[in-house]
Amino acid sequence: MKSVSNIGLAEVQAVYSGPEGELWELIMGEQIHIGGFISSMDLAEKAGIGAGMKGVDLCCCNGAGMRFLVRFRDVAQMTGVDATKKVVEQGRSRCRQEELSDKIKFVLADVCDSGLEDASADFVWGEDAWCYVVDKERLICEAARIVKPGGVIAFTDWIEGTTGLTDAEAERFLTFMKFPNVQGISGYKDLIKAGGCTVIKAEDTGRFGPYVDLYLNMLNMQLTYDALKIIGFDQELMQKMGGEMAFMQKLAHAGKIAQGLFVARKKR
Question: pTM (2 decimals)?
Fold first, then answer.
């Protein structure tokens, strides 16, 4: 696992409380993860998530994943946990607007210490967000604590690819993205097993490269003005961020970073 020492929860909260979070939503949509609807449906189908189930979304951000599950998988009840006040408030507002507040609730808390009841959910969900969590071992253990015996933990995340990052590449990538560390497929598998769960799926989705191409094309070809407006029309900052996105694009196509998909079942 590659890591940097100067990034923690406060830095992540700053991202999603400010213009950087708005930029990610501009280029990735309300579902701020690679693949959007397609990725969510793929994960839900592979995890067997469906009608009448009760779930918990750890690092839920604005709750788009929960609204997807309620609308398109007929999930009965969702609870989202996130430590950033702005996105929790935004999520509550969007759920009210979409008349989904009766099925979706939010908890403002550290996802490694959520305060939710033991064995209270049929599944725990996460989409491209656990990369922001410092202690991934505690996070996986928290997910395993919350889910019922026989229940499912299903998540996608940004991971280190099979080619591997050099230390210099990792430092630049993690610093730009405000990730304290980045796991690989084997690392996550080990954490899942140590948390008392059986790994069902652990795979590279193959989406990262094509989607980062899409995001850069959108920024360069259509959303330039919109992005500049969010950052106060600072063209120098825009150029710098574009350079970091291009660097990330090269890493993705070289197999050094990827989107991983994981499905696990808690032992009975």
Answer: 0.96
